[in-house]
Design a protein that fits this description.
The protein is an alpha+beta fold and 379 residues long. The chain is built from eight helices and 23 strands. The strands form five sheets. Strands 7-6-3-4-5-9-8 form a seven-stranded antiparallel beta sheet.
Length: 379
């Protein structure tokens, strides 16, 4: 028995020694990875190139980024009004005006080459160059612009163009995850992520028609006209502006919803312009002072302080002092809402306006006209 026990202990000792030698020098033989000293670490399987890590936005970025382009603009040098003044030349010398260059982004929305971007990106540009994510370049033609929404439609002529899928911005909710894609500061295409911080932002003084998606995804100069997409890579909005004290991102960015962009795109491509409804009134926010002045007992809505003579509203029976509480079944809470809802009405087709007067509520049938092109203080 004693001899058997001695043989057993020697065998165990040899096996343990062999294990430690192999674990230290050739850990791969045992399915281990070498660690520090004699500590062995379990080997973690390496993900293959097609494996998407949990929580990654890789697929959404890959799906949408190919349809996001960089836009370079240039404006020719304008002659100085003093260029022929000899006294100006004597004191200041010859002034050489340099061409102005600009930078922005855009989104390919059609295989025919139509591109959505911001109006302020291409405004007054003499030349527009579009650079695709695959490094192809093309000169772009302006098909039409809509300064009131700050949108523009360009067109390029290239084959095999990638096209983004248009999403549904009306289904967005605060807290939804989004990606912003563009070319900030000209560094190259960049993808940032964040959430929807707010919806329906208006009264910012950026556009005439404001219904912005607010996001904390980093948006910087050069991102204007780029894409705001959902986690499936579908277009939700056109990145337009940021709130910043430094010129860079502070986590407050604004995008025009794709629902608005589609209306502008279809109007420009089909008719060369965007046709909006207009009723010819001067609307104001409802305040206790205005309510008392016009003698109306209303707490919600938009008060009409002026009505254009022989305009659509006047013909439909609207009067100064009326408080508009609804249009075509949609509640109205402020002037921007009234502006947006009326603009979306089809000119020539009557819509019901819910109005609060001193005598009570009435319903008016008003057929909007076509909104004048020049910006006016009246709706």
């Amino acid at each position: 028995m004693k001899r058997f026990w001695l043989l057993f202990s020697q065998s165990v000792t040899v096996l343990l020694a062999a294990y430690f030698v192999v674990a230290t020098l050739k850990p791969g033989w045992l399915g281990l990875r070498g660690g520090v000293g004699n500590v062995a670490v379990l080997e973690v399987p390496v993900s293959g190139p097609g494996t998407v890590p949990p929580g990654s936005f890789r697929l959404a970025a890959q799906k949408s980024s190919s349809a996001v382009v960089s836009i370079n603009t240039s404006k020719n040098a304008r002659p100085s009004p003093h260029s022929n003044d000899p006294w100006f030349k004597f004191f200041f010398g010859e002034q050489q005006d340099e061409p102005q260059v600009g930078l922005g982004s855009g989104v390919i929305v059609s295989a025919d080459g139509y591109i959505l971007t911001n109006n302020h990106v291409v405004e007054s540009a003499d030349e527009i160059e579009v650079i695709l994510n695959d490094s192809r370049q093309a000169r772009a033609k302006v098909i039409g612009t809509d300064p009131e929404s700050d949108l523009a439609v360009l067109k390029i002529s290239l084959d095999r163009l990638p096209v983004i899928v248009l999403g549904n911005s009306n289904s967005l909710q605060v807290g939804d995850q989004v990606l912003a894609i563009g070319n900030p500061f000209g560094v190259g295409q960049t993808v940032t992520s964040g959430i929807v911080s707010a919806l329906g932002r208006n009264q910012l003084g950026i556009n005439t028609f404001e219904n912005f998606i607010q996001t904390d995804a980093a948006i910087n100069p050069g991102n204007s006209g780029g894409a705001l997409v959902d986690t499936n890579g579908n277009l939700l909005g056109i990145n337009t502006a940021i709130y910043s004290r430094s010129g860079g991102s502070m986590g407050i960015g604004f995008a025009i919803p794709v629902s608005t962009a589609k209306i502008v795109l279809e109007g420009i491509v089909k008719d060369g312009q965007v046709t909006r409804g207009w009723i010819g009134v001067e609307p104001n926010e409802l305040t206790p002072e205005l309510a008392q002045t016009f003698g109306v007992n209303a707490k919600l809505g938009v008060i009409i302080t002026g009505v254009l003579q022989n305009g659509p509203a006047a013909k439909g029976g609207m009067k100064p002092g009326d408080v508009v509480t609804g249009v075509a079944g949609q509640a109205i809470h402020n002037v921007p809402e009234l502006l947006t809802v009326v603009a979306a009405l089809k000119p020539g087709t009557a819509a019901e306006f819910e109005v609060q007067r001193t005598a009570g509520k009435v319903g008016l049938q008003i057929a909007p006209g076509v909104r004048p092109k020049a910006r006016r203080p009246v709706q």
